Amino acid sequence: MEEAGNDVDTNNAEEQDIGLKVLLRLARPHRKPIVLGLFLGLAGSLGALAQPMAARTILDAVTDKSGLLGPLLTLIALVLAGAVMSGLQLFILERAGERMVLGLRLRLIQRLLHLKVAEYDRRQTGDLLSKAGSDTTLLRSVLTANVLDALPGVVTIVGAIALMVYLDWILLVVVLAVIAVVTLVVAPALSRIRDSTHTAQEHVGHMTSSLERALSAIRTVKAGVMQDTEAGRIGGHARSAYTAGVRTVKLDAFISVGTALAMQLSFLVVLGVGGYRVASGTLPAADLIAFLLYVMYLGSPLMVITAAVSQLQKAFAAAARIMEADTMDTEFPDVVTVTSPESVTERSPRRETGREGTPPTVEFDRVTFTYRTDEPVLSEVSFRIDAGMKTAIVGPSGVGKTTVLNLLERFYDPTAGRILFDGRDLATLPLNSLRARIGYVEQTAPVLAGTLRENLLYGTHRDVPAKELAEVVRAVRLDHIVRGLPDGLDSPVGERGSQLSGGERQRVAAARLLLRRPGLILLDEATSQLDSPNEQALQEAFDAVADRATTIVVAHRLSTVVASDRIIVLAGGGVRSVGTHAELMDTDEFYRELARGQLLARG
Ligand SMILES: Nc1ncnc2c1ncn2[C@@H]1O[C@H](COP(=O)(O)OP(=O)(O)OP(=O)(O)O)[C@@H](O)[C@H]1O
User: Region annotation Disordered: residue ranges (predicted)?
Assistant: First the structure.
């Protein structure tokens, strides 16, 4: 038990250390406005601190019946200058906080989009969303509203204490003793605030993940009458976040009560001790009044600073969650880390212009691939596809057909062996220019939200003439659908293309591929949801570009297979046979079975 407790403490200490380091690193590029803000705060504080002194001269002037105008004007000038400076300082510091968070968000977005595909497999999308949303928002509100605003208060406190020493050090010792006792009592609450905030943010992450999962499969949820079950489960995370939130609020309240109590007690004790000393003639009345005013001045920055220290624990918890993004693998080694003070540079897709249309030769050289640590999906797979060839990959479900396409897109890298692209190892080619040469229609043919036009032009990276767009739309038989839409090509397609049918989504994906004019075409059962006339049309459209491309199709239909130059039969993690349809029908019993069963059934 004790060891576990120690462990938690070490983690806490580490988290606090890392959190503080991260915040300082984030603040570094903004040190100029922060210093300026602090300077204004210092000037404002000095002005405020001078006010009781000015008040004392007014009192003295009244007692002495000397000139009142000078001290009065000084006091008014001090009040006005103090107000303007504190306003300016607030603006400058809060803007610096906003900029820190903007930089952090831009780097986080950049990083989350450049993770390796395996990282998305491992993590929950919603949790990544929650880092970018709720964690950066928490950090922002803490930094701007609490921490930076509290910094000038430090100056006020130091100044007030210095002036109190000047006025009467005995009373100061009394005040500091009261504050020290109360601080000792509330200090342990701070680390507990960090813990409960971390727990709350984690539950918000789980809630976002679960909600994202349910909403992305909402039709399945409804069809299974699972709305209430899902609502209960997701609500469970919301409730856990609430419980942790309430714990934080309790601790916050405890700390703020402690601070307020310290101030009030100090005031009363100073009043008592000071009053006695005034009565016994050892302290002038004007000094006691000035001293009491300083105790009051001390109150507000002390409250703000204590609140800031407790809020800072929340910032540490949020920073620790955001920083997890730096431990995730990215596709490019130079993707900026979330916590670096660098600003994000836009990265444009590097294309080998003029080469993207040329069909490549593709070769698998003893490729072994394992998704995780279990059985390899592909072991020692070797085949060669010559430039301009149309090759079909067939095999039983789950044998690794899609995996072959994923490896060509470098969504994953082989565990062993090499993939050659025009004789060059795929791993040595610039990733963006490689992908720019490939057109991939996935099995699920995803469509993004937005208009039909945006979806068709997605990833083309060039100005497509209206005539070419219209031709492609006609070629994939989307033209009559476009005519039926209220705004034609500019009509929205709904979230994930929900306003389109499965077949229409596939045709949008196919059109997108044609517009990209890729040298290597990868089709994953791209025609599986189409009826015969549409499939025929799409086939013709692909055939028209296939002359200029190497095509690899994961085939589930006999018609696709028969039209291919070569067929690769995958079975048991390896290549079983290669040949034309006629050759394989003659020589491969397994293929014959496959053709009769799987391919004919769907063809
Ligand atoms: N991201 C992933 N993480 C872990 N395992 C995976 C992943 N994707 C696929 N697999 C597993 O790898 C194996 C091959 O999957 P793949 O999608 O390549 O099969 P397939 O031959 O295309 O199947 P189908 O014809 O049913 O589409 C399957 O057993 C699958 O469960």
Answer: 338-361
